Amino acid sequence: MAGYQLRRSLLYVPGNMPSMLQNIPLFECDAVLIDLEDAVPLNEKDAARVLVRCFLDQYKERNKEILVRINGLDTKWALDDLKTVLPGMPDGIRLPKADSPEIVERLDTLLTEFEEELELDIGHFRILPSIETALGVINATSTAKASTRLIGLAFGAEDYTATMEIERTKSGEELFNARMRVLWAAKAAGIQAIDTIFADVNDMDSLRRETELIKRLGFTGKCMVNPRQCDVIHDVFAPKAAEVEHALQIIDAIKRAREMGTGVISLGGKMIDAPIVIRAARVLRTAQAHGLVDIEISEEDIYGTE
Question: CA 41 to CA 185: how far, in whole Å?
Answer without folding.
Answer: 33
